[in-house]
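Quick check before the chapter quiz. The format below is the same one you will see on the exam, so make sure you can read both the input and the output lines.
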Amino acid sequence: MGKERGSAFLTISVAIVITGNLIGAGILALPVNTGLAGLVPSLIGMVVCGGLMYLSATVLSEEVAASGDESFNLPSFFGKYLGSGGRWVAIAANLIILYGLLTAYLTGGASIIVNLLGMEGGAPLVTTLFFLALTAFTLMGIEIIRKYGSLLMVILWGTFAVMIVLAEPSVEPARFAYMDWGFLPATVPIIVTAFHFHNIIPNVCSSLDWDMGRIRRAIALGMAIGFVMNALWVHVGIGALPLTGDGSLTAAFEQNTPATVPMSQVIASPVFLFCSLLFSLLAIVTSYAANGMGMVGFAGDLLGNVLHLKSRLAVVLFAFLPPYLVAMVYPDVFLAAMNVVGGVGIVTLFGVLPGVILLRRAASAGTRVVALAMVVLFALFLCIEVGQEFGLLKLHPRTEHWHHHEQPVTPQDAQPSPAAGDAD
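Here is the expected output.
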C-alpha cells in the first residue's frame, strides 16, 4: 500500500511539474487573442487543441520510454523516421520555438514592467536590464529553480488565485455573448503554446521509470490542471475587459501587450497590481531560464557538430543575442512572436511531425484515422499561420458588431458584413 501511495504521489508531483511548464507566456497572451473570438469559441478551441497536444505528447512519450534515454534528441529522432529532411525541419522548428519564446519573454516582461510601473520613456533601458538579469540568471542561477522550484510554483499559483478572486467581481456575463467563430483559427497559435510542455517529456519519462501508464496519467493530470487555469484566466479576462476602447481586449491586441496590463488598469487594485506583476514576472523568469538552458544546449550541439565551433562565448551569443536585438528593434512584438512560435514552430515540431510518425507506425485502421486527422489539423493550423504571416490570409476580429455599451448582440447583429474581415 505504501509503495502504491508513493507511486501515486510521484505521478502527481510530475503532473504539477508539467503544469508549471505550461504556465508561461501562453497564459499571459490567452485572453487577448482568444477574447476577440469570444468565450465559447475560445473554450472549444482549447478543448480541441489541448486534446491534440495531449495526443502528440503521448506519441513522443512512447518513443522516449521505449528508448530509455533521458538525453533523447528530437532532431535525431525525427531523422531516424523521416530522414535528413525531417531532421532539418525539426532543427528549424526548434530554433523558431526557442528564439521566438525568448523574444516573447523579453518583450512581454519589459512591456509589463513599463506599463504597470509607468516607465514608458525608459522602455529600451528596461528591456536591456531585463535581458541582462534574465540571461545572467539563466546561465548562473538555474540551480535556484531546481532547489526552490516547488516554492516558486506555490507563489505562482497563489498570486494567480488572488488575481482570479479579485477579477471575478469585475466580470460582466453579458460580454460572454460575443462570438466570432471566423477569428478562432487566428487564436490557435496562442492556444497550442499555452499547452506546450513537450520539451520536458524525456525528464517526465525518466522520473516515472519509463512506465507509460503512469506517464499518460501524469500528462493527462498536468494538462487538465493547466486547462482549468487557462480557462479561468480566459473567463475573467474576457468578462472583466471591455471588447473595444481604452484598456480593452482590442487595444491590448493592437498594442501587443500581455493581458495583465489592461486587467490591472480595469481592476485598479494595488493588490491585483502587485500580484499580476509578481505572477507575470515569475512565469516569465522561470520559463526564460528553462528555455534559455534548452537554447544553450541546442546552440552548443548545433555549433559544435555542424560548424565545429567549441567557443562558450559563441554559444551564449548565438543563443541570446538575436532575441535581444529583435526585442530592442521591435519592442511591441510580444503577441506576434507568440503567434510564430505556436503557429509555425510548435505545430510543426510537436504536431505535424509526431502525426506523420504515428501514421507511419499505425497498426490499425483506427490509429491511422486518428493519425491522419492529427496531421491534417496541425497542417491546417500551419497553413493558416503562414498565410497570415505572408499576407495571403487576413483574419480580423469583427468587433464592430459589438454594441457600444457591450450589451449582448442579437443573432442578426452577429452575422458578419460581406466586406468585414474577409480572407484574401
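If your answer matched, good. Residues 90 and 349 are 6 Å apart (CA to CA).
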